[in-house]
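ok so I'm stuck.
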Amino acid sequence: MTLDSNTRSEIRESVRNLQPIGDRFRTRFFTRLVRLAPPLAARLRQRLDGNMDLVRMALLSLDHLESEQLLDAVLRELGGEVADGLAPDDLAPIGSALIGTVREFLGGEFTQEKEEAWVNFYAHLAQQLERGAAGREGQ
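replied:
not stuck anymore, here's the structure
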């Protein structure tokens, strides 16, 4: 799966608008995830709290939307660290929580085009995380 220019543009614009809210976004994301999948939220929060460098890496990956090869390398590395211990079924509630949180914070700016872009971006992200986790299992 590749990210088309419209997806990249919509994600970039969304991220620019979400940057000022910082920790509030993260808190709201975990609140949503707790409602959707409490044990998963606890495991993921523990992994992320234990290594904030991974969170920074995820945010850094968004700076590489123009270079899909670099973006994918960063996401696979992140997957090797974070996705370790996550089942493929865990990725759906994470995506729902992420997209729901983006929708909440963008409000009226969350158009159909933005939603499609985030769904496409998350599908791409999940694919790369799975590859990273699979690579780690093979070691």
